[in-house]
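Mods, move this if it's the wrong board.
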Amino acid sequence: MTPSTPSARKKILVADDEPDVLNLVAINLQRAGYDVLRAQDGEQALRLAVEHMPALLVLDVMMPGLSGLDVVKQLKQNVKTARIPILMLTARADEVDRIVGLELGADDYVTKPFSPREIVLRVQSVLRRVEAPAEPVEMLEVGSIRVDRVRHEVFIGGVREEFTATEFKLLSVLMERCGRLQSREVLLNDVWGYESVIDTRTVDTHIRRLRDKLGAASEMIDTVRGFGYRMVLPGA
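Not the wrong board. C-alpha cells:
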C-alpha cells in the first residue's frame, strides 16, 4: 500500500503495556499504510486520544494504572472522543472483559494470541463500518424508532439518542429488514464485515445494548432462540 492511499492519512492509536505486542501491532499497521501513535499505559492512551483524535484506537484491556476498560468508559463519556471506534485486545480467558468492553462502547475485540494480519483486517473492517457512505434509503422508520442515515441520527419517540457507529449499523440493518429473521452469522457479516463466524456472542452483546437504549421500543426486537433476531412491528 503506497503513501498516497486513503489509509495513509488515517491515524491509529495503539495502546499496550507489553513492548513486544505494542511494536508488533504498530509495525504491521504502519506497513498497511496507517500513521501510528503509541501508548504504553491507559493514562497516555487517554491523553493522546484527546490530543490527536485518531481514526481508531487499538486498546489492550489489561494495563497498569488506568485499565483499557477505564479508558473506553472515559472516552465514551467525552463528547469530543465518544465517536472514536475502539478495537480491544483481550486475553483468551477474559470473556467478561470482552463483554464489558462491548457494553461500554467498544466496537470489536481481538483475543491474544493473534496474528498481525488479523489485527490489520479487523482495523480495516471497523473503519469501513464507520466510514460507510449513506445507504440509498435515507430515512428508516419502524414504530416509534426513526433513523436518519444521512445525518447518522436515531430518534426514539421523537427524542434523539446517541448510538455508536456499530449500534447504528445494526439497528439500521434490522429496521431495513423488518419482519425478516436474521441469523447471527448474517449479522456478523453484514454489520461487522466478517466472512466467517468469529464469535456470535458479539451480536448478542450489541443487541442487549440496543435494547437498553431503545427502552420501551426494544420490544420490537424479537429473539429467535438458537438462530438470531428480527425486528417486528408493534403488536405483531
